[in-house]
Amino acid sequence: MHRQGKIAACTPHWPRALSLHLLAELKRRNVIRMGGLYLVGAWLFVQIAETLLPIFHTPDWVLQALVVLLALGLVPVLVFSWLYELTPDGLKRDSGTGAEHSMAATTARRMDRLFFAGLILLICLLAADRYWPEHVAAPPPPARPAPSSEPPAPGEAGPGTPLVDQVDRRSIAVLPFVNMSSDPENEYFADGISEELLNILAGIDGLKVASRTSAFSFKGKDTPIPEIARQLDVHHVLEGSVRKQGNRVKITAQLIEASSDVHLWTQTYQRDLDDIFLVQEEIAGAITTALKDILGARQVKVDAPTADMAAYQRYLHGRSRFYQRFELDQAVDDLRFAVERDPGFAEAWAFLGATYWLIGSTTYASERDRAEMARLAVPAADRAVALKPDMPIALSLKGRLIIDSDAPGRVAEGIVLMERAVTLSTSDTTPRLWLALIWLELGDVDRALPLLESARRQDPLVGINHGTLGVVRAIEGHRAEAVKLVLQAIELDGLAVWATILAIDAVHAGDRAGAAELVAAMLPLFGDRFVLDRSRAAGLLEALRDPALEQAYLQQQTQLRTDKVSDIFTLGPSLMFEHGARAFQLVERNSANGWAIVNSAWLPGMRWLREDPRYYRLMQARGRVEYWDSHGYPRGCRPVDGPDGRHLSCPEQP
Questions:
Q1: How far apart are CA 397 and CA 400, in angstroms?
Q2: How many helices (H) and strands (E) are present in the chain, helices listed first?
Q3: What H or E segment, with its residue span, contains residue 540?
């Protein structure tokens, strides 16, 4: 009994004694030290790998696999440390090493020194990552002669002379940053960062910035930097990469002088996502510092458009989809999410309104109710302008919506807003294009021309800029230049609209062979995305060559797209072959905008159209006649009454 009581009294203390003994053994065998040293070494290894792997464009899974392998390696390292000890005679099992041969104490001191050295190095790396982004500046390029104040137009450089050497040195293009994350959704985020930097740089006085559309046309291509700069007519190029993981983002940016392909500046930032606007400001500030010799001192300030990072990321997604004219229904969802999360997010309201308008007034793919989208565009644009009165895209959108409302007296009001939009700094040429199209419709090509020339200079790889300018040049009588421009529009974007309008003009000018020649030149330029347009253009060519095929072609095209009356291959043949009989019927029946009619009316061979009473009635319904009554009719034109009603008389129209 006494022995049993003694055992019972000692039993509660044996787990504690065993724990103390195990802890003492772990310390003696340096298992704890080895674990700490392994963790510090592994963390240092991960930091170095995270810096070096992007240089070789390795996918995200490589770094993720390294982290997993290092985590799994901790267990065998601890087991090895428990079983073996380093002695003067090499590695031996701990159980077979006597106290007189043990070097555990000496090894412990060495491990302590290594641990603290590694810990200090790790702290320094983390501090540098957080507060001191590495900066690498290339030596300044050799001095160059001052550029001419009037750089040559694209494609006019002398033989053997790179055009990029002749352009304004105060110019830059921002290429789409490469998404280094494995998640394809982060592609939108990377594109969005590039677009934000582009917009920030566009606001710097004295710096010419290539537009987003032209710069992004090189996405995914291996075009050399000097060639990109030549096509965009810029002297500098900014490129980079973005890696986003959770709430951390790593951005690498580099500024390149295109003519020499020299890196003027390179910088890497690793930040929390909440600091993304500060990073944008730092990058823009570093660029202005690198270019201070040609720009002078410039201060850059970036105001965060929203404090809600979830709203900001969805906004970047929606804006990118809007620019691509792709997945517009998803763009509506993205932008609605952004404004619901932050009702004060002006930029999100502006692009939501623009997306509503695009769905409601065009035939881009959408499952939404187009009438509802057109209605919702107005309050969205109003909200954007109320929140940020000087946002170019918002002002231009609101002006266009006012003009398209067809309400009496509102055309002039809308033009005022659109004119104000084009005076504000922006990398987006859309406000200039939209205003130029209004002037073209009103017959004021003198006002349309400088806007289109400016848009084309800034956005040289966008087809609509070439095509619209081509129509204006044809109105002025420069037919050869106009043909070249409209064919470039097809080559760039597959836009057959403007070339077809010139073909219509040629037919009515008595040059049917010239029209056929132009349509034949269109055919090889259509890409694989425009197989249907190529087929319909081929049918048009046959009808031009054989008048007996006209009616069959007209009937075929009308039946094919009666619901898409703004399609040039539906309205165009009617304007070309039957003086608009079917075209005006379709417009009156569908209340479509009749843009093919209004954009071709001022061409030299289309006098019959602009003097047709049906055209006058269409323009009256659109509020344009009221504008002419108040602000003057197009040069050489005046309204007269005839047996079929009032119409324009333009005998002196050049």
A1: 5
A2: 30, 11
A3: helix 531-545
Residue 562 has pLDDT above 60, yes or no: no
Q: Tell me the pLDDT tens digit for each residue of 103-140.
A: 566 666 666 677 677 677 767 766 655 554 444 443 33
Q: In this model, does residue 167 exceed pLDDT 70?
A: no
E-strand ranges in 386-513 read none
DSSP secondary structure, 437-459, as one string:
HHHHHTT-HHHHHHHHHHHHHH-
Q: What fold does the segment set 322-428 form as a domain?
A: 1.25.40
> d(Cα 268, Cα 55) in Å, to the nearest integer?
12
Choose between 136 and 16: higher pLDDT: 16
Alpha carbon distance 378, 397 (integer Å): 9
Instruction: Say how far apart CA 495 and CA 490 lie, in whole Å.
Output: 5
Domain chopping of the chain, boundaries: 16-132, 165-304, 322-428, 454-654
Q: pLDDT tier at 260 (50, 70, 90 boundaries)? A: confident
> Cβ distance 251 to 268 under 8 Å?
yes
How confident is the model over 319-343, as a mean pLDDT?
92
Residue 92 backbone dihedrals phi, psi, to 5 degrees: -140, 155
Half-sphere CA count of 302, side-chain side, radius 13 A: 20
- The Cα 524–Cα 474 span in angstroms is 23
Query: Residue 268: beta bridge partners?
Result: 252
pLDDT of residue 76: 82
Q: Tell me the CA distances in angstroms from 223 to 88, 209, 413, 486, one per residue in order.
A: 61, 19, 45, 25
Residue 606, number of CB atoms within 10 A of its CB: 23
Q: Mean pLDDT across the stretch 315-333?
A: 89
Residue 57 has pLDDT above 70, yes or no: no
- Which 3 state secondary structure label does DSSP give 621? helix
Q: What is the DSSP letter of 653?
A: -
* 594 backbone dihedrals φ, ψ, rounded to 5°: 60, 35
CATH placement of domain 165-304: 3.40.50.10070
What span, in angstroms and rounded, lies between the C-alpha atoms of 200 and 610? 44
Residue 267 backbone phi and psi in degrees, to 5:
-155, 145
Phi-psi region of 599 (alpha: psi -120 to 50; beta: other; left: phi over 0): alpha
Fold agreement between 165-304 and 322-428: no
The pTM is what?
Answer: 0.71
Cβ count near 511 (within 10 Å): 16
* Tens of pLDDT, residues 415-458: 999 999 999 867 788 899 999 999 999 999 999 999 999 988 88
Find how far residue 328's CA is from the centre of its chain.
Answer: 15
